[in-house]
Amino acid sequence: MTVVEELRSVLPRDRVLSDPAELFVYEFDGFTIARARPAAVVFPSTTEEVSAVVKILAKHGVQIVPRGSGTGLAGGCVAFADGVIVSTVKMNRILKIDLENRVAHVEAGVRNTALSEEVAALPGGAVYHFAPDPSSQRASTIGGNAATNAGGIHTLKDFVTSNHVLGIEMVLSDGSILNCGGQNGCCEDGPFDLPGLICGSEGTLGIITKLWVRLVPKATDFRTMVATFTTTADACDAVSDIIAAGMLPAAMEMMDGAMVRAVEDAFHFGFSKEAQAVLLIELDGIGPLLEWEMSKVTAICETRNAAKVEQSSDPSRRAALWKARKSAFGALGRISHSYCTQDACVPRSNLAEVLKRIAEIGLEHGLQIPSAFHAGDGNIHPIFLYDDADDSQVQNTLHAAEKVLKYCIEIGGTVTGEHGVGVEKLHLMPYLFDRATMDQFQRIKSAFDPQQQINAGKLLPSDKVQVQLLKPGRHVPQ
């Protein structure tokens, strides 16, 4: 029997795709530069079915590639080397919501927002939610959020996904099932934080099938502010000053002038097209304290030459402002055939010089690079506009992005804040980490997946699956 025939012996025929026309949409994720057609895509609906599928693929020596909704931005769920994608989207059941203990038990394919919506519909549940909020949260799955340790707009105060995962069920490369942590976050196998290790491993250690996650109280009161600046440097300095003053906003997001104009042209949210930077700041907590914090934040922004500071406690205005921020990337579709969103993390105090250097790199490579990013935690998202039908533009973009990432590393930053390494930044891992550290990473990978069959060639270099996106040489438009 062929691999596909064996897979169809354990799954219904309609849950095993092998027709090239059906496989086309699985050639890439949100990072469209990395492309490869899988040999097949399978849709198990239970952990036991995932285990059966993995045993078949392991027997045949086939690469096994976990995939959620495919919203990742680093090529992490693309199946190279004729791999088979194991999709978790059919595993979308919310198994238990325990409001008394503030936890939920979910399958990996549950959408991020679906959990909070179901919690809110329960008696007494309206005050709780699942806090991680990546911009893709209406589509992205909780299993995928955990695999990439996703962040989001409210990461500054609510932290990343790993801080909200208590336990994980995962199928290993031989088809065995690992359970670690649990409802109370306790590991039965010792004092090791295995859920913390698995979160952010980008599907290279196994296939997450179920999770225990925290439910936390929602803020009962908030203030949303929009500060408009005539220079990006002033906006960046205001961010550092606010944190240095001892305040911790729920969120502090920034859009540069190019992004503000793109968003305003597309969606008409009321931003000034003359702005060179806009800060969206949200404060939450107790009403009287919020008024004091808001006045202090306003004073700091004005000290940093803010042209205008809008203050609001109106829920509808708040929703509109955050919709504007989450619509930023979609707005770029009106002005560019393609775009590549980068994701580095730098010290807040370096934000102004980083944006200046990105602008210089854009000029060197003839690229427009607008930005919309999580300024509060230094997680930058320069967005490179190009045409993916022109390979010289693709290579030019990759070389420019490499320059940006190397610069961020050199000033004390890192190659990813939330999107992950995938294949996109794989070649920069040895640039960021020394040989001893990389060797230790490989030992951990080998302990979980000795045959390098699960998502090999992602996150860590592999001699089994090698992908080269960046061609040698300098590609600058003439």
Count every beta strand, where a strand is a DSSP E run of 2 or more residues.
Answer: 20
The CATH topology of the largest domain corresponds to Uridine Diphospho-n-acetylenolpyruvylglucosamine Reductase, domain 3
User: How much is the average pLDDT?
Assistant: 94
First-to-last CA distance: 54 Å
Structural class: alpha+beta
Shape: globular
Number of domains: 4
CATH architecture label of the largest domain: 2-Layer Sandwich
Number of helices: 16
CATH class of the largest domain: Alpha Beta
What is the strand arrangement across the widest sheet?
A: 5-6-10-8-9
Point out poorly predicted stretches.
none
* Approximate helicity band: 25-40%
Kindly provide the radius of gyration, computed on alpha-carbon positions and rounded to a whole number of angstroms.
22 Å
Q: What percent strand?
A: 15-25%
Largest sheet: 5 strands, antiparallel
Write a concise synopsis of the structure shown.
This protein has 478 residues and is of the alpha+beta class. It has helices at residues 3-10, 20-23, 47-60, 112-120, 142-148, 155-158, 194-198, 232-244, 257-267, 287-303, 315-326, 328-331, 351-365, 391-410, 429-432, 435-448; strands spanning 16-17, 40-42, 64-67, 84-87, 94-98, 103-107, 128-129, 165-171, 177-181, 207-214, 216-217, 222-229, 251-256, 277-284, 308-312, 338-341, 344-345, 372-373, 379-380, 383-386.
